[in-house]
Specification:
Elements lengths: L13 H12 L2 H13 L4 H28 L3 H9 L6 H33 L2 H5 L1 H4 L2 H7 L1 H20 L2 H28 L4 H9 L8 H14 L6 H6 L8 H29 L9 H11 L5 H35 L3 H15 L1 H5 L4 H11 L3 H28 L2 H9 L8 H9 L1 H13 L4
Helix pairs in contact: 1-10, 1-14, 1-16, 2-12, 2-14, 3-4, 3-12, 3-14, 3-20, 3-22, 4-5, 5-9, 5-16, 5-17, 5-20, 9-10, 9-16, 9-17, 10-14, 10-16, 11-14, 12-20, 12-23, 14-15, 16-17, 20-22, 20-23
The protein binds tryptophan (TRP).
Length: about 450
Amino acid sequence: MEVPVSKRSHWGSRIGFILAAAGSAVGLGNIWKFPYVTGENGGGIFVLIYLACVLLVGLPVMIAEILIGRSTQNSPVGAFKTLAGDRSPWVGIGWLGVFTSFVLLSYYSVVAGWSLHYTWLSISGQLAGLGPEKVAPVFGQLYGSAGTNLLWHLVFMGLTVAVVYGGVAKGVERWSRILMPALLIMMLVLLGKSLTLDGFGKAFHFLFGFHQDKFTAAGALEALGHSFFSLSLGMGAMITYGSYLRRQDNVVGASVTISALDTCIALGASLMLFPIIFSYGMEPAAGPGLVFISVPIALSQMPGTTFLATIFFALLVFAALTSAISMLEVATSYLIDRRGWQRRWAVVTAGLTIAAVGLPSALSGGTRLFGAGMEELVGKNWFDSLDYLVSNWMLPLGGLGIALFTAWRMDRRLRQEEFLSGSRLRSFYQGWVFLLKFPVPVAILLVFLHAVGLI
Ligand code: TRP
């Protein structure tokens, strides 16, 4: 069942769309993952390669996604049906996106739940009271506690459902307009603090200095994979958000703004975390534990722990929430557009299903129930397996499909008209199509070859 265009929900304002899409992009990927991946890859060159990936691979795919959404006024499955025909195999990209949204949100919500837990520990003054030795084991206790994980996972899913329930303008947009500026302010406060620390110079050098010896091909591919994750590409999230735009809205300009914001916030997060890490003698290459172990240990030694830690973890929660709502919106819009459901039933059903799919992830640290068989089988527990699958396979595959479709299959005239409608960047059209035709698919194929161990 098609929803007539005139009845479709739209964003209330241009800035509302930008904040919502930037909210989708800015997430745990920026504040939790980017700094530790940068740390593991030695900073410097990795940051440079990441910037190149955003510009040459991420940005073109983002333009393609938003453009497909705006042009069809439909969520991913419907969008490909409209452009390629009901029975076309290209519709598979849409299906993959909807499926990925269920899987991704199911474990993303568990990490977001950890952030909620730490926010609670911070606000209630517990982090300040513990002292560094007792802060170190907190993460292990949390990871191992099935009940605590479950509680926060469900609370976070509840919050996400509550926002998406309100609809496009009154839910997603309204909350993005509150949470995103709040996030920026909190980040500036923490950045201001980091600037005053001894470790700032060292951190700056680590991030922007040129250390050739640290360059590895694997690091470059990791940068590429992460740029996809960070910009929320490959899943149809941007198709969905783009579908609530009006025809005259500027897709190219918006994509540039969103990508720039996302990148600045990833760099800002690193500039705020690494001085803290260096000033308190911690390791930058701490892996996933950077934000949940090293940072709390450092914060607990600083004057004003409660205040600083509360701001930091609330920032993490806000970032995660605006991303999670975009994932739930993909699933929800599918049920509304293709199945004709009412929004409230669509949101509640999708939310409950995702919460249930997330149970094994929430429990995989605390029980042998879901970890055990998996670990013996693939060497990873449930949670890690899903993250590996989504980040290395499902998102790049979706992105590859979207790039190939836009470059090779989409009606040329429509593509050009859509690109130029509302945008003044005429001269970029040819370059954009060229990138999508060759360099982007080749780059993504390299990620796959690396994932299967061929390079
Ligand atoms: N970009 C988000 C982050 O950095 C994660 C995210 C939200 C996402 N929506 C997505 C990733 C859609 C891929 C597809 O945390």
